[in-house]
Design goal:
The structure holds two protein chains of two kinds. Chain A is built from two helices and five strands; from the N terminus they run E-E-H-H-E-E-E. Chain A is an alpha+beta fold. In chain A, helix 1 packs across helix 2. A six-stranded mixed beta sheet of chain B has the order 7-8-10-11-14-13. Chain B folds into two domains: 307 residues, Purple Acid Phosphatase, chain A, domain 2 (4-Layer Sandwich), CATH 3.60.21; 178 residues, 5'-Nucleotidase, C-terminal domain (5'-nucleotidase,  domain 2). The chains are: A alpha+beta, B alpha/beta.
Chain lengths: 72, 537
């Protein structure tokens, strides 16, 4: 099946999860997401989990995490 | 009025006509109530009565008399309904002590509180997966949390049908696009359920489960669901439009993923709320799509979903949803916390599942064992495991589940790819060039990587267990961990498919099969030029 990550089409096995697609897209980006420096969102801007199950044709976007609120 | 009546026959005629309309409307209303009562009666399932009584559900089951009572009450009442919901918990039970504290506090506030699960409670943590019986911690915790209704996710079938039936014996379990292929296979399952609040509001909840386009089955091992039939969820949902008339609130409790939930909302504005799952999507706040409130609470029990509904005079007048970040919550239910601590002492994890006559140690022996497990479990020709996925140096003589999860802790799926010998060579080449050394352990064949001094690869020889070369004109069913498929760059025409098990599960099954572990003494199947004088198996 095909999943788009940041506009790049990734061909991946059927039954793949978000983590599989991310790893195939970029090991560096995978590491940033795993280290919680970045998050993965769907085409609608909602965060998805790394074990989220996918259907062909879906889109993912890797985004920087929102900066933490300063502590008062 | 008198003056109006005396104004002439035209006006009298108009008033008479108005009176006629009033009588007609009254009759229509009565007919409508009768129809709705009949429909309610049709929805009544005798099996649900006992369950609803046991779990203190406000389930609506009593037909026309209850309908009359409902009409009387809802005409003059306003109720606040709170539905807490979870999805894709995947065996992560630790935050249930917080969930219990939140739900209990809300129950004490006077709101009408319900608790729903949108599926995939099972699979993802050995504490739950490997309990005896499987899934029991989840069942007991959900019972203590007084779950009102659940829809099965694809991973609810991973342990087989019996553990799911044990859940369904405790909680109303709904899915409209699952049917029994053989009568009596899953009698507890129903397409929908009607819950009733104390103030008389009826909440109709139907379920749906995802299917794979390739085989029209949910994403689980096909053997686990061979006695069930599945239909396309969105097509099936269209048959449920008439449920709208059966209550004041219509909820889709779905396990089809967020994208499908959006399509469902667009095709069925009759639904009030869709509580979704499967895609592990964090929707906060819940959003309105075509008038339908759509929500989903991430995954792994990190969030608790909350939907607030206000019903006034029998009509839903307000709906909203948000997520509660359980990582930020401090309050915990002490009794539930103690239960969870007890489940973490899962005795099954330290039970001996196999005994070896000698210690199995080193990447070659351990990798051979792991790949044999993959190959045997699925009837494959060849299997590969990367050295980085072998996390112990040795297995003890008495092997426990805990040892297996320490050896193979990543939860990687097994993926089948149909490959040519040329593609297999490309995979081996890619793996070798990472560090100029053997990286892939193998089952079903042996291989040798011949290099020059640089060391650039000159040739990769593939050999059957009997010493013959692989046939170059055929393809092979190859099992790989999902990590290899995703992170190694190699040519393969077939994109592959998940076999819906993990490499660790295959190894457990293999060890429990009573295999002679003495075979793994000094076994080696992958060689580079310096190490290999000849092939051995």
């Amino acid at each position: 099946m095909q999943i788009k990550v940041n506009e790049q089409t990734i061909e991946i096995f059927a039954g793949a999860r978000v983590r599989d697609v991310l790893l195939k897209y970029s090991r560096a980006e995978w590491t940033r997401v795993r280290n919680k420096e970045k998050i993965v969102t769907d085409a609608h801007g909602h965060e998805v989990g790394l074990d989220g199950e996918l259907n062909g044709g879906e889109k993912l976007v890797i985004e920087a995490c929102a900066p933490a609120e300063p502590r008062s | 009025m008198k003056r109006a009546l005396s104004a002439g026959p035209g006006l009298r005629l108009l008033l008479f006509a108005l009176l006629g309309v009033f009588v007609l409307l009254s009759a229509t209303s009565a007919t409508s109530a009768t129809t709705r009562s009949s429909l309610t009666t049709e929805l009544t399932r005798p099996a649900l009565m006992a369950e609803s009584t046991r779990t203190s559900l406000r389930a609506e089951l009593t037909g026309s008399s209850a309908m009359t009572r409902l009409t009387q009450k809802t005409e003059s009442t306003e109720s606040h309904i709170v539905i807490f919901h979870i999805n894709d918990v995947h065996g992560k039970i630790d935050n249930f002590a917080k969930v219990a504290a939140i739900i209990d506090a809300e129950r004490k506030s006077g709101a009408e509180v319900f608790f729903f699960s949108a599926g995939d409670n099972f699979t993802g943590d050995p504490v739950v997966d490997r309990y005896d019986p499987p899934g029991e911690p989840m069942r007991e915790l959900l019972a203590r949390l007084r779950l009102d209704v659940l829809t099965p996710g694809n991973h609810e079938f991973d342990y087989g049908l019996e553990p799911l039936r044990r859940l369904a014996a405790l909680f109303p379990t709904v899915s409209a696009n699952i049917e029994e292929a053989r009568p009596g296979t899953f009698p507890e399952l129903r397409p929908w359920v009607v819950l009733k609040t104390q103030s008389g509001t009826k909440i109709v909840v139907f379920g749906l489960i995802q299917i794979e386009p390739a085989n029209s089955l949910p994403s689980t091992h096909p053997d686990k669901i061979k006695d069930l039939r599945f239909s396309e969820p969105l097509a099936k949902a269209l048959d449920l439009k008439n449920l709208r008339a059966s209550g004041q609130v219509l909820i889709g409790l779905t396990h089809i993923g967020y994208e499908q939930d959006l399509l469902l909302a667009k095709q069925m504005p009759e639904i009030d709320v869709i509580i979704g799952s499967h895609s592990h999507t964090r929707i906060d706040p819940a959003e309105i799509v075509n008038g339908v409130l759509v929500t989903q609470a991430g995954a792994d029990n990190m969030f608790l979903g909350r939907v607030d509904l206000r019903v006034k005079n029998g009509r839903l007048v307000e709906k909203k949803g948000r997520l509660i970040d359980l990582r930020q919550m401090r309050g915990e239910d002490a009794a539930i916390k103690a239960m969870i601590a007890g489940f973490h002492q899962n005795p099954a994890l330290t039970r001996i599942i196999a005994k070896a006559p000698l210690e199995i140690s080193g990447k070659n022996a351990l990798g051979s064992l792991m790949t044999d497990a993959i190959r045997q479990s699925h009837g494959l020709d060849i299997a590969f495991q990367n050295n980085g996925g072998i996390r112990l140096n040795r297995l003890p003589l008495s092997i426990t589940l805990k040892d297996v999860y320490s050896l193979d802790p990543f939860g990687n799926q097994v993926v089948q790819i149909v490959m040519t010998p040329a593609e297999i060579r490309d995979l081996i080449k890619s793996s070798f060039e990472k560090r100029n050394e053997i990286d892939l352990q193998v089952s079903g064949i042996s291989y040798i990587v011949l290099t020059d001094r640089t060391p650039r690869i000159k040739e990769i020889k593939l050999q059957n267990p009997d010493g013959s070369p692989l046939a170059e004109d055929r393809t092979y069913k190859v099992g790989l961990s999902s990590y290899i498929v995703s992170s190694y760059i190699f040519a393969h025409q077939d994109p592959g498919r998940s076999l819906q098990t993990t490499t660790a599960e295959d190894l457990i099954r293999y060890l429990q099969s009573g295999v002679d572990l003495g075979l793994y003494r000094d076994v080696r199947r992958a060689f580079s030029e310096k190490a290999a004088a000849s092939f051995r198996n």
